[in-house]
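Standup notes, structure subgroup. Blocker cleared on the S-adenosylmethionine input:
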Amino acid sequence: MRFDVLTLFPEIFSGYMGQSLLKLAIDRGLVDLQLHNIRDWATGKHNQVDDRPFGGGPGMLLMAPPVVECVEAVQQTTPREGQQGAGRLLMLTPQGRRFDQRLAEDLSQSGRLLLLCGRYEGFDQRIVDLLNPEEISVGDFVLNGGEVAAMVIIDAVVRLIPGVLGDEHSSVEDSFSRGNRMLEHAQYTRPREYRGLEVPEVLLSGNHPEIAAWREQNRIEKTSQRRADLLGGSPPIAE
Ligand code: SAM
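Run returned:
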């Protein structure tokens, strides 16, 4: 699967791309991550990419020409076999559709994603009008730029690509995932006893139907306590 990230700060991604799971996926040819610097499409003496908003107000906005031309040029680059044509264009913005596991699953079915990262006060509206991107938010808060949001999306999608995780089941049984859409059950590893806290006996029993039943019950209890909305109830009230 191919990711094209369009950003003013490609260097932010270098440490991220070297981390184990993603690096392994890139080395094994399962993921192709290309970075594009929007400033390469700036014109004029000062390579300007931002300017003050018409009508006044704080900060600077990304200008339409370099962003639109950068996206169009990247869309026209020929993808390799298995990487779909121009791809799905995602614009990172706090005003977009809220990113979640279902959307990650949907995106993981595409062969190619383009992630457009904003900065400063965001985008000139004509970028949206001309490119018609899918606007995606990673949550109801404001980041300094779209790069961290793009990494969140890449991270969540990459683990759903077949072959990336050692065990394919883990991404099905994770919290929110298609196996149950609930929070995951409690998990334990060695030692069997730590500071007086023991691993529940059933998990040591080797009785797989009983273990599955315990886990199911634990998922339901945990989810109803913390996230009743996932079971069709009301969302938790923030304190
Ligand atoms: N003025 C904009 C607004 O109020 O909607 C916020 C601009 S923000 C400081 C700069 C950039 O960070 C945005 O253009 C976007 O790319 C990114 N960003 C900030 N918060 C985000 C979020 N919750 N989800 C996705 N991207 C976000």
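Discussed briefly. The domain at 182-231 is CATH 1.10.1270.20 (Trp Operon Repressor; Chain A).
Next: hand off to the docking folks.
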